[in-house]
Amino acid sequence: MMDTISIFIPLRSGSQRIKGKNHKKFAPNGDSLFEFKLNQILKIHNEVFEIVVSTDDPIIIEKSKKYKYSIPNLRVVKRENQLCLGNTKVSDLIKHAEENTLGSEIFWIHVTSPFVDHIDYLSAISKYKICKREKKGDSLMSVNKIQQFIWDDSQRVIINNKNKANKWPNTQDLKPLYEINHAFYINSRNNYINMKDRIGLKPSLYICDGIKSIDIDWPNDFKLAQELIQFYEQD
């Protein structure tokens, strides 16, 4: 049992790009992004110490009540208004996460990555523990691997190819870059306290492929994910 891990799920009511993003209908059965994510976490709740939902959204608070018995280690924290603004600093939310969880490890999860599921979470926890034990990393974050020609218009160069003799190599020979997709972060409480960050100095990478790389940030992202969810089956 990963009884030292606190899952932390932040959700605020005031999404500026997609109104009611976290609680509006998402899945064909009417579930919201929040409910869809909790149904994934339901499958692993016995493997972690607690699941903490941080929100100012009264609809989310109400929806969470139906999980009272199926996820007994679920806890809802009413987030203060100043931590729910469009200009709220992530550093303040990081402090909030540390102050409102109890585990020695904090597993920060976003509901806006619906295709990253319980299997990924268990795999991520396993990788995190192995990397720490073998001293290969002090934290873990989800990323999308990018191995295409990336142009920096300010420098007027392809930034991931330093080989001047071969400007257009095969893409598999390019230096891979990694986009942080915000599906999740795992870090120790000590790092939260000492570094004031949700990653450490040497984060390991959990690569998301295909639809797992989708992060719902804009209305078109939401529509695309809704189309894909009809064909998505969870084990």
Describe the protein's topology.
Blueprint: E1 2-11, H1 33-41, E2 48-55, H2 58-64, E3 74-78, H3 90-99, E4 105-109, H4 118-133, E5 139-146, E6 151-152, E7 157-158, E8 177-188, H5 189-195, E9 203-207, H6 219-229
Parallel strand pairs: 1-2, 1-4, 2-3, 5-9
Antiparallel strand pairs: 4-8, 5-8, 6-7
Quaternary structure classification: single chain
Q: Give the terminus-to-terminus CA distance.
A: 21 Å
Number of E strands: 9
- Please identify the structural class as seen in this structure: alpha/beta
- How would the global form be characterised? globular
Residues in β-strands, percent: 15-25%
**Averaging pLDDT over every residue, what do you get?**
94
Largest sheet: 7 strands, mixed
What is the count of helical runs?
A: 6
Taking pLDDT < 50 over at least 5 consecutive residues as the criterion, the unreliable ranges are none
Main β-sheet, spatial strand arrangement = 3-2-1-4-8-5-9
Topology order in helix (H) and strand (E) letters: EHEHEHEHEEEEHEH
Question: Nearest-angstrom radius of gyration?
Answer: 19 Å
